[in-house]
């Protein structure tokens, strides 16, 4: 599982000219799910993401979590995070999770975040989405479950 987490001042996702989700200060999270991911992996990734202290405190140090700044989440599914570009010029997505299983895990991640009382907005799984953001910093962190040993 891969999360590309962007610290934002604001972010939104639009589908067919309609705003599907919008947040102010918080994280825009692009979520890639592989064929080997499980709910256990998702639980660990959500815990790690929500614990990240990447907002600045009064001393200008990145020392505050999403909760500490009352930030929101905009979660967007993105299977292309599992693009394999090693051969040729056309990416292969063989490591990306099958759509049905990946959608279930994506929805599970959304539920877990909402259960933790975090304002959570979403795109729509598999839709053609337009994502806008004002990246704060810019500050972008990549969480990869394999690299984290999950």
Poorly predicted segments: none
Average pLDDT level: 96
Distance linking N and C termini: 9 Å
Strand residues, percent: 35-45%
Estimate the helix proportion, in percent. 10-25%
**Order of helices and strands, N to C?**
EEEHEEEHEEH
Number of helices: 3
Q: Look at the helices and sheets and give the structural class.
A: alpha/beta
- Looking at the structure, what is the overall shape? globular
Biggest sheet layout: 6 strands, mixed
Rg on CA atoms, Å: 15 Å
How many DSSP E strands?
A: 8
Notes on the protein architecture:
The protein is an alpha/beta fold and 150 residues long. Helix content is 23%, strand content 39%. The chain is built from three helices and eight strands. Strands 1, 2, 3, 6, 7 and 8 form a six-stranded mixed beta sheet that branches. Strands 4-5 form a two-stranded antiparallel sheet. The longest helix is centred in the C-terminal third of the chain and has 17 residues.
């Amino acid at each position: 599982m891969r999360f590309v987490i962007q610290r934002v001042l604001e972010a939104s996702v639009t589908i067919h000219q309609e705003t599907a989700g919008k947040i102010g200060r918080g994280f825009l999270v692009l979520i890639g799910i592989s064929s080997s991911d499980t709910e256990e992996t998702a639980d660990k990734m959500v815990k790690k993401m929500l614990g990240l202290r990447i907002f600045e405190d009064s001393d200008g140090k990145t020392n505050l979590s999403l909760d500490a700044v009352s930030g929101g989440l905009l979660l967007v599914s993105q299977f292309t995070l599992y693009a394999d570009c090693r051969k040729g010029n056309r990416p292969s997505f063989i490591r990306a999770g099958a759509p049905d299983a990946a959608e279930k895990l994506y929805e599970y991640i959304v539920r877990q975040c909402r259960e933790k009382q975090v304002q959570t907005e979403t795109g729509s799984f598999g839709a053609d989405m337009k994502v806008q953001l004002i990246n704060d910093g810019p500050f972008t962190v990549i969480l990869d479950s394999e690299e984290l040993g999950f």
